[in-house]
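Regression test case RT-17, inverse folding.

Input:
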């Protein structure tokens, strides 16, 4: 990614040691989150979806003792190693956004 693209990001991304479950063309559990922001998530997975696919996400926050369930749209895929995909949230209401914000504040420190 070019420096200009990084500078124009609306939401800063954070690398975390966390996992996500998602349902798209199949149910996939315990996939590593490569990075996460208030706008979306990058997941490492051997089963990438097609761009435009709507997926159900369950993001677990062990540090907060909770999780967030939401929907997202696959906006890019990488079919070569490291096999990952970017997902933009599409139904992030304020309570879910606040939970994400709290988690990101913790990992930022």
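Golden output:
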């Amino acid at each position: 990614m070019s420096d200009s693209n990084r500078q124009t990001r609306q939401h800063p991304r954070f690398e975390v040691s966390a996992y996500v479950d998602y349902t798209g063309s199949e149910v996939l559990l315990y996939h590593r989150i490569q990075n996460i922001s208030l706008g979306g998530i990058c997941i490492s997975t051997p089963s990438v979806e097609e761009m435009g696919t709507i997926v159900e996400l369950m993001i677990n926050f062990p540090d907060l003792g909770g999780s967030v369930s939401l929907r997202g749209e696959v906006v890019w895929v990488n079919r070569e190693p490291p096999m990952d995909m970017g997902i933009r949230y599409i139904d992030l209401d304020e309570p879910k956004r606040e939970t994400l914000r709290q988690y990101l504040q913790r990992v930022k420190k």
